[in-house]
């Protein structure tokens, strides 16, 4: 009866799929086990009694495992669909066994089982929110990464070491090229006293030995050989004495009987020559720079008697030498002083500032000075000044006090104003120069400076019989701090010679040539009646020469009178200025030829 039923359900194209029994149908809300390769073991052990917390934790882990399996199945289905589109046969598709994926086994409670059938314990992941725990975790991860990197780099390091060893063994590779020489760190080392002197002596001895044909190394080797021979002799002597004390033969004490010589006597029992540096042993008593200063008591030069070379030293007993006193005297040789001062650069001329710039500069200087005072007040070095009271700010500063007693406050303000005025006048008086300082300042203006040239000028005046004109010539020369002389001659034109600074000579020339009116003269002083001005014919003042001189001929200013040319020459001879009068005599005005 089963066959007709099967035929009844046949389709036109193929047989109907077999129906699954109710016992094998999958429950609702789950997925098919044949796609996920999940097998529920019927032989699983009975679940032990667990606490609610453990049960919930196991359920959560099982859910996570199921979700992971779902995702994996979805990925596998997507891969199958893509492969089916490109006509790849099922034989090429890898199975779970081929991929190495083991089937997931769970018990009746949904817990994951391992291969042996035991429940797998899943520790929950603890995520810390504290910064210190996060730092610990990051440090731990860094250490693990470092250890892993070192473990990975160990084979490469071993390869490099092997390669370096092979390179060292090879005769065609220089191992020094593979290593990088590090720069030696300089330490703070102090020079010991006498170290350079010892080095110099060592070099001197080496030069002497080289000049004399001495091999220093052979000497050291010979010395070493002698020391070894002496040590052997001392050891043999001790062994002979030991054999005599014990009363035994020498052969029982030592094996080398041939080296034994009882007649050998050491220089000193237990002594041993100490090895010294070449610059310490046998230091010379006479150095080459002692030549001429130290002589023998007989008066001879030890260097000449020994036929010493230029820089050779001598070993002589100090008792045989003495100091040559003739080489010393009372005179001291002072070395030339070295001028360590740098040459000052040429100072550029000051810039001419405008009126606004000068005002701005003065204002800035006042502000800087006031700022310094304010800083001192803030720090507490000086007390703050009292308020500057005036009639205009009286009500604003004092306020209540001015309202209470205005008369007293006004009196106090006026006293302060008067005190400020007096202090201002007192400061002005203190700044004023004394008569001596004023005269020094005036003299400094007209005197010749250190680096200034001395200017000189020569004048001739037809007549200086007028006392007014003579007074002007004399007093202005004194005020300009000029040196020279004025010779008033009655028979010839007068001569005026002046020396001084460039500015004073310039002003004096301007005075004589432009300001003084030589053609005007007053009437005689004894006449009572006023007389008209007499204009003498031919009155003049001429500038004969002006220029710079090397030094002053006159030390002061003076006025002299002369009756003839010989007297004028006698007046100028002590000052070595006779050439000035010769210039006056030879002078000829070029305007006369016109």
From TrEMBL:
| Keyword annotations | mRNA processing, mRNA splicing, Nucleus
Origin superkingdom: Eukaryota
* Residues covered by region (Disordered): 1-30, 140-168, 403-446
Instruction: Report the InterPro entries cross-referenced here.
Output: Pre-mRNA_splic_Prp3_dom (IPR013881), Prp3 (IPR027104), Prp3_C (IPR010541)
Domain Pre-mRNA-splicing factor, residue spans? 171-434
Q: Which GO terms describe its cellular component?
A: U4/U6 x U5 tri-snRNP complex
Q: Which residues form the signal peptide?
A: none
Localization (cell): Nucleus
Which example biological process does GO assign this protein? mRNA splicing, via spliceosome
Q: What is this protein called?
A: U4 U6-associated splicing factor
**Species for this entry:** Babesia ovata
